[in-house]
Amino acid sequence: MTTVKCGTKVLARLRLLACGLTLLAGCSQEPLTAADPHADLPVPKRSSHAGSFISKSINGVEAPLRLELKTTVRADISDVLAFYRVELGKRSWREKPDDTVVAADHAQLAFVSPKGPATLRLGVKDETTIDLVQRNTEAAAKANVLPTSGQARLIFGYLRPDVASLVINDQTIEIAGGINHPQMLDLPPGTYPFELRVSGRLLRTDTITVAAGEAWSLTFDDDRKSDQIY
Question: Which residues contact 120 (CB under 8 A, 6 or more apart)?
Fold first, then answer.
C-alpha cells in the first residue's frame, strides 16, 4: 500500500511540473522580427529605441563609406544572434566562420556583404547591446581612402595657415596649412602614439589603434577623437 501511495504522489508531482513547463512556454516571447524588413541594417522591433545610424562620407562621395547601427534590445543574446543571422542572410551577407566568436555574454561575427566587409558585435548589460557596421568598398575607392592591402590608412590635415608636423611611427611628416591639403599615410595594424608640433612647439599628443583595411581621419582638435571613416 505504501509503495502505491508514493508512486501516486510522484506521478501527481510530475503532472504539476509538466503543466508548469507548459505555462512557461506559453509565456515565452515571440521570435524577434525586423522593424523594417527592407532596411540595409536591420533593427529588431523590440529594440529599446530606434537606434542611431552613423554614416561617414568624405571627398564629395555621396554614398556612405561606413554605416553603423548602435541600439539595444530586451532579449537574450542567443535570440538576437539568431535574428541577425537570419536577417543578414536575407540581405546576402555571408558569415565568415573562422572569425566568429560566441560566448554567453558577448558575440563577434564578421561578414562579407554585397557592399564590403561588415561586423556584428553583441554584448550583455541590462539589455543586449548591438553594434553593426557595414563598409562600402566601392565608395571608399572613389573617395581615395582605401589603404594598401594589409595596411591601415590615416588621413590628416591641419586647418590653420601655418605649417605643422606630425610625428608618428618614427616618422616626422610636414603638414601644409589650410583646409585643402589632406595628406595620407598607410601603416601596419597596431597602436601608435603621435604628436602634433607647430613651429617646433608640442601642440597635442594622443594614441590611435588601427586594424588592417581601416581608414581613419586623424584630428588635432583637443576636444575631438580620431574618427574611423572606413
Answer: 84, 88, 107, 108, 109, 111, 130, 131, 132, 133
